[in-house]
Amino acid sequence: MNADMKEVIQAVCSNRLVLLEAATELVDLLIDYTGIEPEFVSKVCRELIRFVGPDIGNISTSLALLAEPLTNIALTLHRHPDYRDIGLQMFEELISLNIRETRSALDILDRRLLKTTNTPFRPRRRRKKS
Length: 130
Description:
By secondary structure, the protein is mainly alpha-helical. It has helices at residues 3-14, 16-30, 38-52, 67-79, 84-96, 100-117. α1 packs across α2 (16-30). The longest helix is centred in the last third of the chain and has 18 residues, at 100-117. The protein starts with a helix and ends in a 13-residue tail after the last helix.
């Protein structure tokens, strides 16, 4: 991703109609650059969430295709030490929009945490036969 491409993407983000039209392709492009350009990707995704908002959870629109990649981007940003707060904020925004994929990811993460934090059961002692 070069400077010219970033300018084009920023121009797309500033125009709501163009952003709505190009949203799915834009997110598909950005998901590969989340680890390389986290600041740029986070700005674009936050703008997208701000503009599109509740339509992401509406399965009758093509914007529902954004739910899974945006969830993945938020989780990837959360794993990055410098962008942990931004990733968490994006994830919480997606949860507040009641995005099914985000809730599903949260359920999976919660189950994983529960499994690792539970203490194992001690084996039962057998009674001696008399």
